[in-house]
Amino acid sequence: MQGQEYSQVGERTMRLKRVDPVSVAKVLGVLYAILGLIGGAIMALMSLVGATIGGGRQGGLMGLVFGVGAIVFVPIFYGIIGFIGGLISALIYNLVANVVGGIEMVVE
Prior knowledge:
By secondary structure, the chain is mainly alpha-helical.
C-alpha cells in the first residue's frame, strides 16, 4: 500500500474505499438534529426575549408560539436535512472513491 513508509512501529495504513450510505445518513441526521436543538433553543430564547422587550399581549403570545415551535420543528427539520445530505454525500463519496482510491488512514 502507498503511504506505508510514513507509518511508525505498530501502525499500518488502511484505505477507506466504501461507506454505507444509510449508516452515514443516520449519524449525520442525529448530529444535525442535535445542532438543530441547540439552534432552536437559541431561537426560542431570542424570541421570548424579543416578546418580553416588545411588550404587548399579542407579541408575547407570538414569541411563545415561535419559541416552542423553534425547539420542536428546527431539530426535526435539521435532522431530515442532515439525513438526506449524509445519504447523498455517502453515495457521491463511494463514486469518487472508486475513481481515486479512497481515503488513506493510519491506524494502530
